[in-house]
Design goal:
Number of domains: 1
Number of strands: 3
Largest sheet: 3 strands, antiparallel
Structural class: alpha+beta
Shape: globular
Order of helices and strands: EHHEEHH
Number of helices: 4
Amino acid sequence: MDSRVLPHLLTSAEVAALLRTSRKATYAMITRGQLPGVVRIGRRVLIRQSDLLEWLDQKRAPSPKESWR
């Protein structure tokens, strides 16, 4: 038996909820190549949760204390 773990995949609606945007805006970001971890299975478009969370962490603005260093 294979011991690999499948990645957690999010739907466009779940990504839109996490980003607090619309599904239409989420699809536009996917089309422009702005979202990481896009997986296409047939007509379905899914996003790897781990890639999205890492991408969001990279987009995080430094707190005022961090920018003083």
